[in-house]
Amino acid sequence: ILPLYDNYLLIPSRSPSIIILIMKKTAQSWIKKKAAGNPRQHSSLQAVAHLDKSPVPDSYAKLMKPSFFESLIPRKLNSVSEFEKFKLNPHSLNDATNLKFYNKLLPEIYYEMHDRGANYFYASLVLSLGEFLGFNHQDPNQNQCVKIAAFIEMMHNTFLVYDDFCDDSHTRQGKESVVKMYGAPLAITSCIQAWYQAQNILLDSLPKEIHGGALKTISQALQNISFAQNFDLGIKIHGYIPSEEEYANHSVNKFYSAHMGADLLFLLSDTEPEVRNLFMQVLDNLAISYHIRDDILNLIPSGVTKMKSFIGEDIYEQKPSFLVIHSHNQAKNSERLQEILNMGTRDERLIQEAIEIMEVNGSFKYAREQAKIHAESALIALEDLKKYDEFGGHDAIQRIVEHITSRTY
Fold it and tell me: How far apart are CA 290 and CA 358, in angstroms?
């Protein structure tokens, strides 16, 4: 029995190549049949594949299983009482005859996005920090940490849908994007509805005395993430090339869901300020390393480009990636690179030309060096946190940080 990693197989290296090919094709065919026959079963298989190759401990994977999210957002509204979980105007639904319509408005679109699988980077960071701070995730009376992790994932999914709208993305994780399937207005508003639902459930689980602080924390995160979205759009419209410092700040803003989750946990715990300062240093450096690495993976054959269906999507989307910023400041063909970027082209020949310019300018080498520097800075701050580890959560955080900064997909 071979573990499946999104159609990649772990096969002994000495297996005859023809056997490897047959086994891979057979496994891919099996996944497609499962997906056609039972979409929900396919989503479970996909989620397992993501969790198997992610740093998520088994205990965290069980907490983030589909049934937990379905307790927050019903997968299908089978009765008026399930609709009432959304706490809308009680007159919104008077009987069960409208359920088919409301299913199309609320859960169907959200789960179309959710079921594509998640790497649970943000959720894992929050759960591991919760363990570090002494939260017992298995105790129903202390499950605020689990709800914070779920809320972050649901909010993140909403922003991914909005990202696809802003970037005019046709695919997401190998499938037609939700924006293209349902249209941008309905796709975005349905995911926002799911996110508000998770937020209300989260607030209900928190002590009332910290509601003000929690809402302020959520509002600050939304401000940072929204500014990151505006920054991306402004860059595209005005052809602006940011500095490396602006890129670093932008990366932290895009990663701010994790900062929000951490600050919500700090509100719930009696923690020394130094612990928060060190953990935020971990997150800031992790964010920068993660996004630089993501920029590299977008321009080479990788798991990222496999899911996006072609190499160089960032060039098509006119994104001034870290490599573009570096190459823009070099003497060799920087104007030609900007010209190709402004085209917003899918032409493979032009995209390859742009990649070659960045390679000649040493931008790939420089980007790898900077990603490594920030990864090491995150680990140094994490090492300083070790002296505060009373409950044994440090190793889980380190495992997740090391995985995120060395990922290939």
Answer: 19
Residue with token string 């997968």: 75
Quickly count: other Cβ atoms within 10 Å of residue 377's Cβ: 17
In sequence order, the β-bridge partners of residue 171 are: 176
Which tokens belong to 405? 């900064």
116/379 Cα distance (integer angstroms): 31
Q: Are 48 and 78 in contact (CB under 8 A)?
A: no
403: burial class by Cβ within 10 Å (0-12, 13-18, 19+)?
Answer: middle
- Dist CA 217 CA 260 (whole Å): 6
List Cβ<8 Å contacts ≥24 apart for 222-226: 224/252, 224/253, 224/256, 224/259, 225/159, 225/253, 225/254, 225/256, 225/257
Cβ contact 129:265 at 8 Å: yes
Tell which wins on pLDDT, 50 or 311.
311
Residue 144 has pLDDT above 50, yes or no: yes
- Assign 6 to helix, strand or coil: coil
Query: Which residues are bridge partners to 4 per DSSP?
Result: 9
Alpha-carbon span 108 to 106, nearest angstrom? 6
Residue 61's nearest CA partner among 13, 11, 4, 120 is: 120
Q: What is the chain's length?
A: 409
CB atoms within 10 A of CB 17: 7
What rounded mean pLDDT belongs to the chain?
80
> Distance between CA 98 and CA 339 in Å, rounded?
52
What's the whole-model pTM score?
0.80
Judge whether residue 224 has pLDDT over 50. Answer: yes
Residue whose token pair is 């363990």: 131
| Tokens read off for 152 | 């972050």
Residue 397: enclosing H or E segment and its boundaries? helix 394-404
CA angle 397, 401, 405 (to 5 degrees): 175
Note whether 131 and 137 are within 8 A (CB): yes
In this structure, what token pair is assigned to residue 94? Answer: 């008077």
Q: Where are the beta strands (DSSP E) in 72-188?
A: 171-172, 175-176
Question: What would the two tokens of residue 91 be?
Answer: 């007159």
